[in-house]
Design goal:
By secondary structure, this protein is mainly beta. Helix content is about 10%, strand content about 25%. It has one domain (about 5-70). It has one helix spanning about 45-50; strands at about 5-10, 25-30, 35-40, 40, 65. Strand 2 (about 25-30) and strand 3 form a beta hairpin.
Length: about 70
């Protein structure tokens, strides 16, 4: 039986997205309090991807978010 995942949106840039839905955002899953899920934009610049390559493990991927999503950093 498939698990039901209850998603809680913690922060979003929905006001900056044309469809108000597919936007960079940070989420929590109800039964996973130790994790946060981040929806990012795909890095398409090969020079930027190469510069970060040494920081990205095999089970990770590089993405970016608008500064407005996390203005405190």
């Amino acid at each position: 039986m498939a698990r039901t995942v209850e998603i809680h949106t913690l922060r979003t840039t929905a006001d900056l997205c044309p469809d108000n839905r597919t936007c960079p955002s940070i989420h929590a899953v109800a039964d996973e309090p130790e994790r946060r899920y981040v929806i990012t934009k795909k890095v398409t610049d090969p020079t930027v991807a190469a510069a970060f390559a040494h920081l990205v493990a095999d089970d990770e991927q590089l993405g970016y978010v608008p500064t407005g999503l996390i203005p405190e950093v």
